[in-house]
Specification:
By secondary structure, this protein is an alpha+beta fold. 27% of the residues lie in helices and 27% in strands.
Length: 286
């Protein structure tokens, strides 16, 4: 039985425990606690309204304090996955990480059979596409079943400030698992996401295309093609070089060579406890 608490402060805060349901059974849950960015208009209020200010150290013109805030200025965004599967618990627990360099052959021989053997549900994706969940949050939709997509705020973003703007574009077409499946056949879809997604964000949130980081994750957590849109100024989790692939680069590579992503090596990080690492080790590739 597990209960994971993760803060996005570095290093992450972790705790383990169990949650009791109304029936008294203990059920696994993941609770993610995130301190949200400051809102500029609150800064004056925040400095005036603090409940206590404790000096920690002072040296010449430098000093540091512990500033304690009233609850309304001290909000913590809380995401709950309940009931959580063992895979959810593992995903959020902190472990040593290793870099894998996956060739096209490795993908076919190791990664793909592994993905196909897994049953990690993408029901939440289908719920969004079918308007069974989050329908009121949709920012933009191109309803074309082949080249269309839904643009929606990522659930990591509370939409209160643009500093950590985070949306995802989820394609309508099913069966495109990840970057690895893309060929030039998908360029019209990718162009739509790039063009229409960017325009919709500019219209709704006022951020220009040049202020956005638009990318895929490889490996993704969910194997249904989606694109991340984050504010360029935001150091979003998962935007590091071993995971993020800019949509513009991907389109360019596919224009050069339709089979680019079936052939090229792709690096990604895996945690020590992830079964994919074991698969690569057993294949003598890690
Ligand atoms: O590329 P990757 O699979 O790693 O990213 C999936 C993205 O989907 C992450 O940024 C998640 O925060 C986001 N996400 C995951 N779930 C389960 C949901 C959800 O239920 N709703 C929304 N809006 N975003 C989600």
């Amino acid at each position: 039985m597990g209960f994971v608490v993760q803060g996005i402060s570095k290093p992450p805060l972790l705790g383990k425990g169990a949650v009791s349901s109304a029936s008294g059974d203990e059920t696994d849950a993941v609770v993610i606690l995130e301190k949200i960015p400051f809102q500029e208009e609150n800064i004056t209020e925040l400095l005036k309204k603090h409940t206590a200010l404790h000096l920690q150290m002072s040296n010449d013109i430098y000093s540091t304090y512990r500033l304690l805030l009233p609850p309304e200025l001290n909000e913590i965004k809380t995401t709950v996955v309940y009931p959580a599967t063992e895979k959810h618990l593992q995903k959020y627990l902190c472990r040593a990480v290793y870099l894998i360099r996956e060739t096209g052959e490795d993908y076919k021989n190791v990664t793909l059979p592994f993905i196909e053997s897994q049953s990690f549900s993408i029901q939440w994706v289908y719920n969004i596409l079918e308007k069974k969940a989050e329908a009121d949050r949709i920012i933009y939709e191109n309803p074309d079943p082949i080249n269309g997509f839904v643009l929606i705020p990522d659930f990591k973003w509370n939409q209160k400030q643009l500093d950590d703007l985070y949306l995802i574009a989820i394609c309508h077409r099913r069966g495109i698992k990840s970057l690895r499946d893309l060929t030039d056949e998908h360029l019209p879809l990718l162009r739509n996401i790039s063009q229409e997604g960017g325009e919709a964000i500019q219209k709704r949130f006022g951020l220009m295309k040049t202020q956005l980081r638009v990318y895929f994750h490889y490996q993704p957590s969910y194997y249904h093609l989606h694109v991340h849109f984050t504010a360029l100024s935001y150091d979003a989790p998962g935007c590091s070089v071993e995971r993020a692939h800019l949509l513009s680069d991907v389109m360019y590579n596919l224009e050069l060579d339709s089979q680019y992503y079936q052939k090229c090596p792709l690096a990604f990080a895996v945690r020590a406890d992830e079964p994919l690492l074991k698969e690569f080790q057993e294949a003598g590739k890690a």
